[in-house]
Amino acid sequence: MSQLLHSGKSSHQALRDYAQTPLNIYWEMTQACALACRHCRAEAVPAPHPMELTFEEGIEFLRQIPEFGDPLPQLILTGGDPLARAGLFELIDEARKLGIGVSITPAATPALTRNVLVRLKEHSVEGLGLSLDGSTAERHDSIRGVLGTFDRTVQAIQWAQELEIPLQVNTLAAAETAGDVPAIYELLKPFGVARWSLFFLISIGRGKVLQPLTPEEGEKLMGWIYETSRAAAFIVATTEAPSYRRVALERLRAEGLTGEQIKRSGANRGFGIRDGHGIMFVSNTGDICPAGFLPLVAGNVRKDRVAEIYRNAPLFRSLHDPAHFEGRCGFCEYSALCGGSRARAFEATGNPLASDPFCSYEPQPKPTRTVKPTSE
After folding, report:
1. pTM for the whole thing?
2. Is 237 helix (H, G, I), strand (E, B) or coil?
3. Which of 18, 48, 195, 203 has the largest count of CB atoms under 10 Å?
4. What do you get for the CA distance between the two ends of the chain, in Å?
């Protein structure tokens, strides 16, 4: 799910220091899933991992989250398929009792029924995320690996609209899907979608079988996203493409908007958020990582406290501060609001602090200050 599926609650939208408190915590509740998606980060399988957090361990993890203080992060339940997680609704209830906002990203399997969506709403789930990777059944199902997934997804979108559950739709942006993106937008236009996020492929997990866009192709698609966002009835955003913020900011400046006008418009929403900074991920076995697509382990909820790891673990501290970034990202003037995809940098180089190879922008190195020697 995108970084910014807002619950609509004021505490979630409140200002926060992303070096101290993430906006979103993603919990991969289980690795189990009935789909076989070609780009699955989790490499999901039909059965849960034998070392999956128990129900009691899940409760203890949830009870750590309030240690971040106010405003609390939003909890995004993901997988695998979170609907395949035993004790799902009891875990949701515990999170809500603790004051934690909850959103969920279920897989479009036969388990995703209207009654399940009704129950999720009754248990105070604040947002729903669904994936739509093609404008037709043939296109979408070829990505998801199971026939009928497209029809179930469209049906679930309709149910969410009927039940007035805030909905985010996520779409893969890769070489195999980019040409279909405008048609997917046309398909979504009649629905009451709150947010549409285009996820720019990171080639990990099963995603290695798909082809990412080139930097030039990505820049072109980002231009289309910006133009579309100006007319769309819902928010249009990106995931794992923080360089879109530079593209959008350059376009806004070209249109004559000042910094204060950009701020008032809300167009700067999400600036500064990146893998490990505003985002953290807890795996089905309890590993604490900067993001689902950046599988570097900084701790485990079975023995560590999530707030302590997020604030003080060396990996997270390096990701909080753009001064640690290397190459172009290290001296780019957009490093604070963008910072590049740390996941893509790691996937390409093995170094999460390296430059994001997807960004085509060439910043000018900062001039080195020379000191004139004093005469004796």
Report:
1. 0.91
2. strand
3. 195
4. 64
Q: Cα(161)–Cα(156) distance, rounded to whole angstroms?
A: 9
- Look up residue 69 and give its amino acid: G
DSSP state of 174: S
Residues 51 and 300 sit within 8 Å (Cβ to Cβ): no
Kind and range of the H or E element at 215?
helix 215-231
What single letter denotes the amino acid at residue 302?
R
CA 114 – CA 18 distance, rounded (Å): 36
Residues with Cβ within 8 Å of residue 49, at least 6 apart in sequence: 30, 31, 284, 285
Q: Per-residue b/e over 141-174, b at no fewer than 16 CB within 10 Å?
A: bbbbeeeebbebbbebbebbeeeebbbbbbbbbb
pLDDT confidence of residue 369: 45
Kindly state the average pLDDT of the residues 22-50.
83
Count of CB atoms situated within 10 Å of the CB of 50: 6
DSSP 207: G
pLDDT (average), residues 247-258: 86
Assigned token pair, 152:
């179930």
What span, in angstroms and rounded, lies between the C-alpha atoms of 172 and 151?
17
DSSP state of 23: S
Please state the rounded mean pLDDT for residues 68-88. 96
Q: Give the DSSP H or E segment for 167.
A: strand 167-173
Alpha helices in 77-179 (DSSP H): 88-97, 114-122, 137-144, 149-163
Residue with tokens 């707030």: 307
CB-CB contact of 98 with 62 (8 Å): yes
Angle between helices 88-97 and 55-64 (to 10 degrees): 20
Contacts of 280 (CB under 8 A, 6+ apart): 22, 24, 25, 26, 73, 288, 289, 290, 291, 306, 310, 316
